[in-house]
Amino acid sequence: MVKELREKTGAGVLDCKKALEQTNGDIEKAIQLLREKGLATAAKKAGRTTSQGVIASYIHPGARIGVMVEVNCETDFVARLEEFQSLAHDIAMQVAASKPEWISPEDVPAEVLERERSIYRKQAEAEGKPARAIDNIVEGRLQKYFAEFCLLEQPFIKNPEIAVKDLIAEKIAKTGENIRVSRFVRYELGQ
Questions:
Q1: Rounded to an integer, what distance in angstroms lies between the CA atom of residue 182 and that of residue 177?
Q2: Which residue has better confidence, 149 or 131?
Q3: Among 67, 69, 103, 106, which one is most buried in terms of CB atoms within 10 A?
Q4: Phi/psi at 88 (nearest 5 deg)?
Q5: For the packed helices 131-149 and 110-126, what is the interaxial angle rounded to 10 degrees?
Q6: Rounded distance, CA 51 to CA 157, Å?
Q7: Cα 162 versus chain centre, distance
């Protein structure tokens, strides 16, 4: 069972063994537990400096869309790992397919946030929503906006069950290093 869990998650032997013990041998619950642990690990490492990494590129078939993305990690050792390079390539593909405008919600300019909040507020009022619910409706619609236009919040194109930030958190847990997307540029022919 430990071997099967390792193959599915890429986690270490001891982590898999502990997760199976905690979940009484339930593989699905153990996978969930390891994912949660990975997210906690990623949060702890978020402040660490990421000065190494790669610039990955992706040219969509037909050469009408091209993307370059900088993905950073802490050491050149991790930057050379095939898994890290694959992550960078997947992120470049994500940018090509999903057209994000920003990396994270924190990067969205204040004037854009205010404009969107104003639009959502007017929409909710026009729909006749109760005044006490409008703030929650506006924030909910803003979260949907982030999921569409912020790279880290978007559903991952290869597995829409998780967001790009969750994919990165899983890689942080596996590599033991902080990983972050620093910048990207997307070119589309004629635009």
A1: 15
A2: 149
A3: 69
A4: -60, -40
A5: 130
A6: 27
A7: 8
CA max distance for the chain: 57
CATH number of 52-103+150-188: 3.30.479.20
Per-residue pLDDT band at 97 (split at 50, 70, 90): very high
How many CB atoms within 10 Å of residue 26? 14
34, 45 Cβ separation under 8 angstroms: no
CATH architecture of 109-148: Orthogonal Bundle (1.10)
Is there a contact between 139 and 117 (Cβ–Cβ < 8 Å)?
A: no
Question: In sequence order, what are the residues at sequence separation of 6 or more whose Cβ sits closer than 8 angstroms to the Cβ of residue 120?
Answer: 137, 138, 141, 142
DSSP letters, 123-178, are HHHHTT--HHHHHHHHHHHHHHHHHHHBGGGSEETTEEEEEHHHHHHHHHHHHSS-
CATH of domain 2-45: 1.10.8.10
Asked if residue 100 has pLDDT above 90, the reply is: yes
Compute CA 155 distance to the chain's CA centroid, rounded to the nearest angstrom: 8
| The model scores a pTM over 0.85 | no
pLDDT digits (tens, 9 = 90+) for 1-14: 888 877 676 666 77
Average pLDDT over residues 72-87: 90
Please state the rounded mean pLDDT for residues 157-180. 88
